[in-house]
Write a structure and sequence with these properties.
alpha+beta; six-stranded antiparallel sheet; His_kinase_dom
Amino acid sequence: MASLGVDARGPVRERTFWYVMLLAVAFVMGWGAVQLAARGDDVSPWWPAAGFAVLAVLMSSRRLVPVAAVGVWAVTAFSNIVAGRPVDLSIAYGAANAAEAMIVALILMPTDRFPRIAGVRDVNRLVIATISGAATVSAVVGVSVALLGAESPVATAGAVFASHGSAVLAIVPLGLAWNDQTTVRGRAARWLQPLALAVVLTGVFLPGTHLPLSFLPMPVLLWGAYVFPLRGVALQLMATAAVATTLTLFDGGPFAGAGWTSLQTSWAVQSFLVIYAGTVLYFAAARREMVTVAEDLQVREQLLRGGLVDSQIGMLILEEDRGGEPRIRNANRRARELLGPEVEAPREGAEPLPLVAETRGIRALRAAIARAKDHPHGESVTEVELDSEVRVEILVTRVAREGGRAFLTVQVLDVSERVHAAQALAHALADERTAASQLREVARQKDEFVSAVSHELRTPITSIVGFAELLEDDAVLDAEAQSHLAVITRNANRLGTLVEDLLALGVGSKETAKPCDIAQAVRGVLEDLGPNASERGVALREHLAFGLEVMIAPSDLVRVLANLIGNAVKFTPAGGEVVVAAKFDARTITLEVVDNGPGIHPEDLDRVFERFYRGKGAAEGSVPGVGLGLALVKQLVERAGGTVALGSDGRSGTVARVTLPRVLAQADWPDGIPLLEP
């Protein structure tokens, strides 16, 4: 019977095994019931095969119930034939048994899950299924008896109804409750109650005894329903039905001595068993529900108590007395640690304790409770400092009940670390603001220093360049002097460019942003850098559309272009080229400077815009410069509301992209224009 589980019947092979076994039991029970029948009767006093046939059909899935019922028809018909009943009557009885089993199974099994008895609702379904099945089989048997010309078809149908009803109610619950795990009560009762039932049944139905004591087994069976799980109750019901039926046939019990016919006696005994089985099953199911609810409540109470006692948050439960004063019902260890030992919980069964102490913790608790009482939703949150090291937050929830009294739940949280952390954070923020202010002051002083030094350097550099240009026009200088003079001029110009870059980084351009033509600015820079590029063997090309304007200070745009194109020329080997192109949409213009030099190492790409940083390629190739050009480009572009980025794989050239806000013409371009390739 292990396959009669709560939720599943196991694999097909196991279900088939139990189906066959239960049909075999039904066969034996059918043959035995016919043998116990009084001589000449066509109806057995009790038909246990009906219960085992229903269990067999329940082994199948719902859609195969009719197929399983065919097996019941064959087995029960054969058992009747073997027991000596006429073939035609046996076939009719087999059909009736099959119809009954199918109807009961379909009602008990609304889905493919094996049914179970877990409560009163399940017993209701079993009773409805039993009545429906018994009514069906009694109707079929009554009609069959009438058609075959036998006597008393109505009485026969009534006896069959009671016989099959008691069998299903006594036997089917055994399968439906096989896995019931309800707790067994009392060690002694497990032995005394079955013994008492055996004694009572023997005494009531003892052959030759006809005392009117049919009521006597009921209290003993109800005792069993209290002591045993449903499986034990079902076993006792089946045993009671078997004993009462068998001993009545041997002239025992109150029904045998009433002077009734065999059909009347059978009907009386089985009706008695139906009432007993139904009553005991309802009592057992109701008791099981109560036990389940009680166990669930006990588990919940243990969980709640465990959670309350072991919680790292202070927890209190209070109740207002009739005068509205709060009294402690329960308090955990953490609450006592935070508020003091005065919030001790009362002993088990004792009255709630009042809040009478005048400690700081109790006063804070009473104040928080008073605020919750005044709050429209019965809630309050209070933060209080209990001493120099401990600060707590008290959360109170008040739930009013009938009669003006209320329950209060209190949570006490230690927020000392949070407060200390907040104070430390405030101090850290203050220190950070002070440090930031100092850094800004240092940056301002640095910018002032750079600006002052740059201004001071401008005059001597200008003088050097001017007098060098005058000397270049002097014809009396020989070739060596001219060479030395060219070095002076070149380095003075480099020094002048460096000074201008420092000034731009320090104080910025004094010009305001205005529309600047990209093509015009690029061509001017290419013209200035042309001699240097030619000298290095580098070709300069541009692909620019007319009428593309960006919003930037003109000198800043020239400086950005000069730095980017100049860098490209410096790093492009002889025979290479530098290409300047532009892409644009309705809102921005992206200027690209592309060279086919050695590129930039990937690890340098994130740092090349830092001041005075020079990448590995520049250092290894002895390319002149101090590392200010790209830093200046980034500052000037971002000042104009744009972005700049470099792209390189470190092997085959570099692409510098500068994106700046576009100045639209009078007829504005619509939104969403895609980037156009030059």
